[in-house]
Design a protein that fits this description.
single chain; alpha+beta; three-stranded antiparallel sheet; 3 strands; Arylsulfatase
């Protein structure tokens, strides 16, 4: 939905300890994929949450929130939905995701909901 140039840099120390540049699957990404991308490029150990983000990055199309205004241009009260964009920049319908992708998306949404609006059960595991 938006285009911004980005790069992920590995310094000499990181390269000496297994960091590798990768380009596959990086043409279209979500900003929340950057954590997983850095961890992957630097060959870092990850928490369960970072592992979830890595699965989302590797197995789901990029995601963007889409809020549509009404005819008067108002966005108040409008429900946002998620757009999925594949590596070719094409919109993908959520209904076309595989069963495994839908389950991963549901897991991701549950964690995001819990951390932002839920009872914050997962926060004790994020430390």
């Amino acid at each position: 939905m938006h285009e911004t140039e980005y790069f992920i840099y590995s310094n000499k120390y990181a390269r000496a300890h297994g960091a590798k540049n990768f380009k596959q699957g990086t043409a279209v990404v979500s900003p929340n994929d950057f954590i997983a991308m850095v961890a992957k490029q630097t060959n870092s150990k990850v928490t369960w949450y970072q592992a979830l983000l890595t699965d989302v990055f590797e197995k789901l199309p990029a995601m963007a929130k889409n809020v549509k205004a009404d005819d008067d241009g108002n966005t108040g009260g409008t429900v946002a939905h998620t757009d999925f964009i594949n590596s070719q920049g094409k919109l993908v319908k959520e209904s076309s995701l595989t069963k495994q992708q839908k389950q991963l998306l549901q897991d991701y949404r549950l964690v995001q909901y819990d951390v932002t609006a839920g009872k914050k059960y997962t926060l004790k595991y994020l430390k």
